[in-house]
Amino acid sequence: MNQKKVLIIEDEENLARIMQDYLARNSIQSTIVCDGNEVISTLKAEKPDVVLLDLMLPNKDGTTLCKEIRLFSQVPIIMTTARVDEIDRIIGLEIGADDYVCKPYSPRELVARVKVHLRRSKVIEGTDNCCLILNADFLTVSLGNQNLELTFVEYKLLEKLFQSNGRIFNRDQLMDSIYDDGRIVSDRTIDSHIKKIRKKLKIFNDKQDFIHSVYGCGYKFEMK
Asked: Is 152 in the same domain as 114?
């Protein structure tokens, strides 16, 4: 299993090191960035699973960075700041932050929040720097600012394909992943679910097929 990665964007180096240590104790790898100008290039290079973003940074503030990140990525962002006014919370969430923690905070609490977002979101980066995100809590899939709701079976089927980008699954393997009670269903059932998922994903991009049929084999997920 690939080790999860967190990007810590924090100009207080001592605090950042404490967070890095707590994450490491939980087998979570992290990289620290202290300068706002270095954030975007580091994020694109590292492709983290979660971002911890401080609002007050040298050269470029967290609000601006959050907006810039959302132009090409839907990676979960947890904002950390000493600002406690409610308006700051609202602004932070409206520009694309997923969570908000006020300083001083407990490192254990922040690690717990990171773990929640790691469980909720599985991210695949496309070559055009777009991110497709599956959220198991809400049975949704999102790309950019677009969000789609799936049925439970549709979600489980897409998740199976999505987790192994490029791998071909036959219909029996897909059936086993969505029906764990041993029931017998026809190949047409899988084909019908795939057809519905494809139709929904077309809302993201009507010129791209995320799920491909492989003649005589089955289906695979590919994000180009």
From this structure: no
Quick one: angle between helices 62-69 and 86-94, nearest 10? 20
Q: Using CA atoms, how far apart are residues 46 and 149, in angstroms rounded to an integer?
A: 29
Same domain, 139 and 38: no
Indicate the pTM of the whole model: 0.59
Residue by residue, pLDDT tens for the chain (224 residues) are 467 899 999 999 999 999 999 999 999 999 999 999 999 999 989 889 899 999 889 999 998 999 898 887 778 889 888 776 655 665 666 677 888 888 888 888 889 989 888 876 555 444 444 567 887 777 888 876 788 888 888 888 998 898 887 899 998 888 887 766 555 566 678 888 999 999 999 888 887 888 999 988 999 998 76
| Contact criterion met (CB below 8 Å) for 18 and 107 | yes
Are the CB atoms for 28 and 71 separated by under 8 Å? Answer: no
Q: How far apart are CA 222 and CA 164, in angstroms?
A: 9
- Alpha-helical (H) ranges within the chain are 13-25, 39-46, 62-69, 86-94, 107-120, 152-162, 171-178, 187-201
Residues 60 and 141 in one domain: no
Measure CA of the first residue to CA of the last residue in the chain; give whole Å.
23
